[in-house]
Amino acid sequence: MGGCTLNSKMWVQILVGLNIISKAHGFSGGIFPQSCGSLLPEHDAFRPETSNPPFAVAFEFSRHPGDPVTVVLRSEGSTRFRGFMLDAQNSSSISSSSPVGQFLLLDSDISRLLDCYGSKGTAVSQKNNQAKSQVKVNWTAEGEEKDVIFRATFLERFDRFWDPISVHLPRFTTTMEPSSPEPSSPEPSSPEPTSPELSTKTDVTQTWEPTPKNSSEHTKKVAIILMCLDSIVEEVKMEVFNIQTFLFASKPFNFGLIKMSLLITSSLTFAADVASLVLFRVFPFEVAPVALVSVLVCFTSVELLAAFMPIGPSHELKPIWELVLRGCFALHHIFTTAVIFLGVVRSTDVDRRQNGGRSWTLIVMVAFSVWILLTHIWNLVLCFLKQTILDRNQTDQSKPTRRIRTWSLSATTVALIITSVTLAVGTAAFAIAVIFGIMEEP
Questions:
Q1: Which Gene Ontology biological process is one annotated for this entry (predicted)?
Q2: Which CATH superfamily is domain 33-176+194-208 in?
Q3: What predicted TM-score, i.e. pTM, was given to this entire model?
């Protein structure tokens, strides 16, 4: 009895484990009838791309009307797709869940038929998750001629797939193309060809079902450009704060200038962050940019609050005030760079990466990220050496031979100013280069 119970528990555990494995495996084999309407994979954490996919749908016609049409799904460049879904709909009732015709497989090793809405063979998907550059299937109308629209979805990887594209099936034409020029004198004895030669391939440019993609892409670019400008202002704010804090913070008037510059620059970054958040949130919602920019708004709010705090040059909380500000500057800059990097990666089209190449905008963005890392290493060094630098400046200014040269600068001070200005100018140059790259993207 105990052995029977043990065996029952073992089989239950095996079945549960197999169920978990099947769930984890997902639908890489292409069986996902729940996507018959949207054609989209159910990857809840990821949204479909709204940019122009690097794939196309084309048609190949046979020589005779009524024969099946060959539908070709293909890559336009070096990027290949691992998953896809294809169906055919009547253009007059594309939203009524009424598939048209039936598909016939040409290669059962890479594609499989799906039965959507109770009709057999009305959709096609991948059979495995191997990379593919081209898939061909046959489609037959099975009835009177209709105005047919083919819908196709492509998946490059689990976290990157595109909204369905819609392509109208061209009308069959009997235009013939002679295989060779006719001779000057006819030869009656030569046999006539049994069938005319027909142009067999028609490329179709995909059209977009969803609304205003171009407007959406333009809006995203504006948001990324605002983030680039935010990065410039944040770097300038940080370096100006360094110069003012190390050189001119001992007097109340100079410290007031520090807080005034902090207020102005923080107001500019706050405006850029809020505008970017609105643009990312209103148009096709994406979790990552919205979350990152929301954190940026919090950091900028802290910076603005610090500018209004009644902290003076000799206030006991001044060291903590400076430390909090430097932390906000660093985190603000890092999160801003992350938003820009994410936007550049997602806006980089495959046309700029053909034949194994890389987008120059992406290369500049990588260099930009390294440059930002250097700026924060510099600021970290300043934090540790702050007291040493201040003591040296005070010693230099207290020497009798230098009292008449109050505004003379020590070598350490000159090095600090030159390095800070260089970092600010470099950040601005990289950010402007990224802006131009984003604007050139189609």
A1: innate immune response
A2: Reeler domain (2.60.40.4060)
A3: 0.52
